[in-house]
Amino acid sequence: MNKVMLVGRLTKAPELRYTSQGSPVAGFTLAIDRRGKKDQKKQADYISVIVWGSMGENSSKYLHKGSQAAIFGRLQTRSYNANDGTKRYVVEVVAEEVQFLDSKKESDKSSSEGFGTPLDDFTPIEDDDLPF
């Protein structure tokens, strides 16, 4: 059985890309606090997460640096040849479900920064002036 469940915070905004076939894929790193003894300094693990399809697009749209998220998925390894000719291995979580854990208030605050300029020159239209 290969099941992973993680809760942590994003270290930076997700990076959304598209494959050559047009499939969306988002990638990000999740920082997860590691439990230790009381007198030990806090430590964190940094886990790479890959999210495919519309879930990846939504993750890219609604998650940002510092967002808290729960990831349910599977662990996957892959390898590639580096420029120096050595074979490198990568371990990452392929998300099957992503839950956004920030409150709506926190999410709205971060997503609306730079927006919300009031419209002072708004003129209401009377019902008699509407064409329907």
TrEMBL record:
One CC-aspect GO term: nucleoid
UniProt-listed Pfam families: SSB
Residue window of motif Important for interaction with partner proteins: 127-132
Protein's UniProt keywords contain DNA repair: yes
UniProt feature, compositional bias: Acidic residues: 123-132
Keywords, in A-Z order: DNA damage, DNA recombination, DNA repair, DNA replication, DNA-binding
InterPro entries reported in the protein's UniProt record: NA-bd_OB-fold, Primosome_PriB/ssb, ssDNA-bd
Subunit comment: Homotetramer.
Record's protein name: Single-stranded DNA-binding protein
Organism (species): Alkalibaculum sporogenes
